[in-house]
Specification:
Blueprint (H helix, E strand, L loop, with lengths): L12 H31 L4 E2 L2 E2 L7 H12 L8 H17 L1 H9 L9 H31 L14 H12 L8 H26 L9 H31 L6 H12 L8 H31 L1
Antiparallel strand pairs: 1-2
Helix pairs in contact: 1-2, 1-3, 1-10, 3-5, 4-5, 5-7, 7-8, 8-9, 8-10
Family: Belongs to the mitochondrial carrier (TC 2.A.29) family.
InterPro entries: MCP (IPR002067), MCP_dom_sf (IPR023395), MCP_transmembrane (IPR018108), Mito_Metabolite_Transporter (IPR050391)
Protein name: Uncoupling protein
């Protein structure tokens, strides 16, 4: 995926897209329980009881995972996996597959040497925004399915599954509703994509200049952890706004959601679920980049044979 300037054309776009989609989907399957916990924590508002503030239902990463598993069964932790895989095939394939071509476009075809960090960030912002514009409906359905907790007896679920959710949303709310939260989602995914891909690119490039380090699994592991950390630090506030807008139709706009969250829950609400978010994105990035590097080697060997 993130190659140096000597190997810009060592794999086709189709090969990169397929490798990226596979790696992103595999990482999604492994880490979606943490993402479900993160969404529940982000959507949780302060509960007011008659004599003061009630204890929140979900507390911490492991506590939230345990509560969901206990109340709704283990399978509930994989709610949203079908639209999650739809999302990763589209979004993951496009944002990562387009990163090298777009980066090369920004530096020019005759460029030689290390690509400046600013160009890497710009390429990440561009491909993240383009990819999520196409994949937003899959993200919306994933959040809606993850947000639905245990219902009282006799109360039917809003959606019976991913495909039912797509059709129900179109029928009840219109086609445009599939792009609910597109503003904060573009902001979130452009920023997080730039943080992930540019930091992975930069950290990997830096590590490879240290004597004794080679382009191996340890390097990919360290670069993947760095990518996850930067992505969460930078993207957490906009991620909370996106989850709240997608999970609750009461907000009129991105600004309305931001103001109400700040007013009702305080500034720390924008870092709600930070630990599960880092647990999710850190592990997601490590799994995704490790898988991606191996998938690209496999595809490259097929294309060159």
């Amino acid at each position: 995926m993130v190659a140096d300037s000597k190997s810009k054309s060592d794999i086709s776009f189709a090969g990169t897209f397929a490798s990226s989609a596979f790696a992103a989907s595999f990482a999604e399957i492994c880490t979606i329980p943490l993402d479900t916990a993160k969404v529940r924590l982000q959507l949780q508002k302060k509960a007011i009881a008659g004599d003061g503030v009630a204890l929140p239902k979900y507390r911490g990463l492991l506590g939230t995972v345990g509560t969901i598993a206990r109340e709704e069964g283990l399978s509930a932790l994989w709610k949203g996996i079908v639209p999650g895989l739809h999302r990763q095939c589209l979004f993951g394939g496009l944002r990562i597959g387009l990163y090298e071509p777009v980066k090369n476009l920004y530096v020019g075809k005759d460029f030689v040497g290390d690509v400046p960090l600013s160009k890497k960030i710009l390429a990440g912002l561009t491909t993240g925004a383009l990819a999520i514009t196409i994949a937003n409906p899959t993200d919306l359905v994933k959040v809606r399915l993850q947000a639905e907790g245990k219902l009282p007896p006799g109360v039917p679920r809003r959606y019976s599954g991913a495909l039912n959710a797509y059709s129900t949303i179109v029928r009840q709310e219109g086609v445009g509703a599939l792009w609910t939260g597109i503003g904060p989602n573009i902001a979130r995914n452009a920023i997080i994509n730039a943080a992930e891909l540019a930091s992975y690119d930069q950290v990997k490039q830096t590590i490879l200049k240290i004597p004794g380090f080679t382009d191996n699994i340890l390097t990919h592991l360290l670069a993947g952890l760095g990518a996850g950390f930067f992505a969460v630090c930078i993207g957490s506030p906009v991620d909370v706004v996106k989850s709240r807008m997608m999970g609750d139709s009461a907000y009129k706009s991105t600004l309305d959601c931001f103001v109400k969250t700040l007013k009702n829950d305080g500034p720390l609400a924008f870092y709600k679920g930070f630990i599960p978010n880092f647990g999710r994105l850190g592990s997601w990035n490590v799994i995704m980049f490790l898988t991606l590097e191996q998938a690209k080697k496999f595809v490259k060997s097929i294309e060159s044979s």
